[in-house]
Fold:
Amino acid sequence: MTRPLVRFALLAAAAAAFAATPGRTACCYFSALGQDVNQPAQKAFLTWDSQEDVESFTVQPKFEGNARDFGMVIPTPSRPRLYEMPRDFFKELAVFTILRPMPLDKYKPMRARFGAMGGAPMPADAMKKSSVKVLEAGVVGSLDYKIVTAERAEDLFGWLKEHKYSYSGDEKTLGFYIDKKWFFTVMKIDPMQMKKNEKGEYTGEVTPTRFTFASTRLVYPLRITQISVQDQTEALFYIQAPQKMDMPGRWTYQLTWAPMWRQALDFAVPEKVTAQEKAWQGVVDSALSDSGRSSASVPSMPTRLEWAKKLDGKDLAMLDGSLKFDRQADPAAIRDLKILRGHLRQGQWVTKLRKVFRKAEMSQDLEFTRATLGGKPDDMEYIYILPTSPP
Structure:
């Protein structure tokens, strides 16, 4: 079935509103009673092995608040293994996914642009009647963690309070994951090691941590993040998978990408248009035509595709410096691209997506899907600035 799209004029206005929104979201924060901590942003790097049914995600949440001691809770569909990641992991991902300069020989002149798992198994918690079980405890980086399970939401709620945390949400959200028999990783954070802002509140980003676990789907626990969000939160996803990936349903990046790509093609020199682009033009034209007959509207904060490529040997060679990096960036950051070695894999797609979620939108978890348009697989790379790329 063809996904509904909106006309480019309407989309451009929505995209402009999105770009003006300040701004990232797999965990929820718990703080002591009377103290506040919230999550305005989070970055995540997800990898998916569909053959082995293994998922990994690396998260680096951003927090701010006045709590002197708090923790995060990250639910996963199976028991995870935790690994410390380099502090600048996401900084280097951002450098690696910089768009290449627009190939000026391809486009006509334009008047304007659009705009390792540690610790030993621990016994069950001391509460005799509680269904909470502490399966493992250890340290990853500078963070103490415990992996727990529970059969009843009220038990986990009580366990968190017993360990000097006041749950900022309701038991229903915990029950959402307990009913699915998910596992919970609880991590202690010491804000005293972080900076204070002008309001005297602690603010900072936690050490990046990778969670690896068995899963039959590429999922991301969005719902639990709702607890730590005031009005909205910005999520920046880097997804490594065998195919180009997308957000589900009405959050598809095609609402912004397809009209932008099609408009850019109108500026291209015909002789420079590839066979793949010509074939994809027909798919996009059909989808945009269908959107003209559809009453569907674009979300007020649509998903934006920021980079997409199937990695090859040249990409990996740039990580170790054996091939010169082909974009402009800070020399020190280019040298540190080696941080990404072993994490980025040849033959895999990396798709970079950004989405601002309103609190009301975060009632379910995300399940990423194969990128398609009009029922056709979308294998178009996005590595060069287009005439219609956002500034």
